[in-house]
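Here is the promised in-class demo. Please do not try to memorize the tokens; focus on the logic of going from shape to residues.
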């Protein structure tokens, strides 16, 4: 009996020791994870601080210092935020395997808009005021988001007094002081409040799909385009015809989701049921038909009338004349469609279960990076107007297809769900698959942002998406996955991949200059490439959005710095 008791005690001691060892290992892993995240954020902050410093060096002190305040405050909020507080207070479920992204998200869009403002500096007062209509609401959304997140953290930690005051200071700053910098008071206030409301709705409705920073960029983009559209429709600012088409195509695709919300919600509820009988199948078919009919009616009535009003002519005839106006334009469209068809066929072959070696999702996705680079580079060189309009049309198609996929609308929903799954990566943790849409937006943003009516920017700005995503990000991923052995501290990205990204981007820019794209300063270009490659290595946000905007801003601001100094 004594021997048995001794053995039991020894086994109990061994079990306790193992439990203690497991706890220590878990604690050690958590500490290492925290250190890795902190180190990554530190590098990301360093790169963003260079961006802020560049803005101030342009000698636009008033807006440079305002922008610096937003950046520094968001750094503080990001560093002190406990992500579980957002779940407890707001109910937000952020995208896993990523930091909160507050610093990057609150800085990125104002940085891009401020770079555009620098491009038109010295032009007419009207041009400057128009840009303020977009810059100030973007800053307002960033500030209100940061202050509300800080307030959320204070509630979670039961320290409301100081932070409550800071919250109200932030609201006062956004709706009271920002308009004093210029612009229209109503635009700034309504844009700020509506933008933050959109952000809250996005994070609440689509759990696991966004970080705070990504939601900030999304909400700012929607609000700024809406402001631009209202000003165009009301006649306060006259936009070119192609720009009006982009407004209708992008916002129209989002409005379709709002208009068809009852149908989509019903489809979602029915698809959520675990057991479906024959009646449910018939029910789904009827609601699927109602979606297609309702979408067609909405496009032909509301969107066509809206575009007819802006263009002053039939939109269908406008599209036909635009496409057939130039024979080269038709040939270019056919070549692009052929490239896309070949790419889809190659991806289907690579992903085929019958193959003994199935390509990785990274390799498959980079196929489309390369194809997008060919399409956008050829479009910018041959027919920028076609690319400008075609990118917006493709975005609308992608959004409508995502409606069909997410809500399993018959008969294409299940097919699209299987086809788009090849694009999924660890960043598509939520219900929506956005990788392909992010890729299109990333390539298109420099083209849409470039102030064509001012003719002030370096032409290389238009290629920011091609350089950073199509070449740099692709080279970093492919070389890093195959040959990357030396990891950046606190990151799964390799130094070999970053070096490959830098070298490949410089070579691509040299080829662009060889075929006639003007590059004003190679020093500015190389420095922008270096900073963007470091951002790619350290950011945990969606690089398809971050990298093009960051490179566009750096090329613009550093070019201005080189001119002044």
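The designed amino acids, position by position:
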């Amino acid at each position: 009996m004594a021997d048995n008791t001794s053995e039991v005690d020894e086994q109990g001691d061994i079990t306790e020791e193992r439990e203690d060892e497991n706890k220590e290992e878990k604690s050690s892993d958590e500490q290492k994870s925290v250190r890795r995240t902190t180190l990554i954020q530190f590098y990301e902050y360093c790169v963003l601080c260079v961006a802020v410093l560049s803005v101030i060096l342009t000698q636009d002190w008033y807006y440079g210092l305002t922008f610096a305040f937003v950046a520094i405050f968001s750094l503080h909020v990001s560093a002190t935020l406990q992500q579980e507080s957002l779940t407890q207070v707001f109910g937000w479920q952020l995208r896993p395997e990523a930091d909160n992204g507050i610093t990057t998200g609150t800085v990125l869009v104002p940085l891009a808009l401020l770079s555009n403002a620098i491009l038109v500096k010295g032009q007419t007062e009207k041009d400057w005021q128009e840009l303020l209509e977009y810059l100030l609401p973007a800053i307002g959304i960033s500030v209100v988001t940061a202050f509300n997140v800080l307030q959320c953290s204070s509630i979670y930690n039961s320290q409301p007094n100081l932070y409550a005051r800071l919250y109200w200071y932030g609201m006062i700053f956004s709706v009271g002081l920002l308009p004093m910098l210029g612009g229209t008071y109503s635009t700034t206030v309504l844009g700020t409040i509506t933008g933050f409301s959109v952000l809250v709705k996005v994070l609440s409705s689509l759990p696991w799909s966004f970080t705070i920073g990504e939601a900030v960029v999304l909400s700012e983009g929607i609000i700024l385009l809406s402001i631009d559209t209202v000003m165009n429709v009301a006649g306060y600012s006259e936009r070119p015809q192609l720009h009006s088409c982009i407004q209708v195509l992008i916002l129209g695709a989002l409005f379709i989701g709002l208009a068809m919300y009852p149908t989509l919600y019903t489809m979602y509820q029915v698809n959520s049921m675990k057991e479906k009988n024959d009646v449910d199948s018939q029910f789904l078919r009827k609601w699927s038909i109602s979606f297609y009919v309702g979408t067609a009616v909405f496009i032909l009535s509301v969107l066509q009338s809206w575009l007819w009003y802006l263009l002053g002519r039939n939109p269908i005839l406008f599209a036909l004349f635009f496409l057939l106006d130039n024979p080269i334009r038709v040939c270019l469209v056919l070549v692009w469609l052929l490239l896309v068809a070949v790419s889809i066929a190659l991806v289907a072959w690579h992903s085929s279960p019958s193959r003994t070696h199935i390509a990785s999702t990274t390799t498959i996705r980079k196929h489309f990076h390369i194809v997008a680079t060919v399409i956008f580079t050829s479009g910018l060189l041959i027919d920028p107007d076609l690319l400008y309009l075609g990118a917006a049309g493709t975005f609308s198609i992608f959004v409508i297809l995502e409606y069909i996929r997410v809500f399993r609308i018959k008969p294409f929903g299940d097919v699209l769900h299987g086809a788009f799954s090849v694009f999924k990566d660890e960043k598509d943790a939520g219900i929506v698959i956005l990788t392909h849409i992010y890729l299109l937006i990333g390539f298109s943003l420099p083209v849409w942002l470039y102030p064509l009516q001012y003719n002030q920017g370096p032409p290389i700005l238009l290629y920011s998406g091609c350089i950073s995503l199509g070449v740099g990000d692709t080279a970093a991923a492919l070389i890093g996955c195959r040959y990357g052995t030396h990891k950046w501290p606190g990151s799964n990205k390799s130094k070999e991949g970053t070096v490959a990204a830098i070298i490949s981007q410089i070579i691509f820019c040299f080829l662009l200059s060889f075929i006639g794209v003007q590059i004003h300063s190679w020093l500015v270009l190389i420095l922008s490439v270096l900073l963007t490659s470091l951002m790619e290595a350290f950011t945990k946000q969606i690089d398809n959005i971050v990298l093009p905007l960051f490179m566009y801003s750096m090329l613009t601001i550093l070019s201005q710095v080189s001119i002044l100094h």
